[in-house]
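Lab manual, section 2.4: Encoding a predicted structure.

Procedure: take the sequence of the chain (193 residues), apply the prediction step described in section 2.3, and record the output as structure tokens. A sample record is shown.
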Amino acid sequence: MTKVLLTGFEPFGNASLNPSGEIVKQISGDNIVTAILPVAYTQSAERLLALVAEHTPDVVICLGQAEGRTAITPERVAINLDDARLVDNEGVQRNDVKILSDGPDAYFSTLPLKELVDVINAKGIPAAISLSAGAFLCNHVFYVAQNKFAGTHVRSGFVHVPLMDEQAGEFPGMPTMPLDQMVKAVRAMLEVL
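Recorded output:
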């Protein structure tokens, strides 16, 4: 039986919620390990690697919030760069910093992205492949995971989710998606994997 590690993030900035964390709280199963990562460069990577060491998963999916997106978007590429206007929850800002000084410039997701998008769309939920996970914490965790599993049998990747409806007040004018739809999309991905 395939063992899956599914992670989301805690809220960050001035937000009171993070849909990735809320999704993770609603997913459970015999072979599914879930965790909510801190929005902090060093701690997020350390926590992810500790979970991997403890649970030895076959599949790792990390989820994160992407304001402005209208669809569930599996990411294709993780880049070796921390470069964000935002500070993490510890007040750390990184500009033009390599994640791993001797690491390759980029890694591709090893998840079956087109299949994941198709299965989500088949449920009537908008989904599309994204080519950029940005250069903040989402990309940071994505890159660390891909580096960890490079050359192994473990399939891993990152999926961005839109804001959820409950965040409309904190993000006026931004598109949102009902949380139950996002949970349904993640469950559909897990069935494929």
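Check your result against the sample. The first strand starts at residue 4 and ends at 9.
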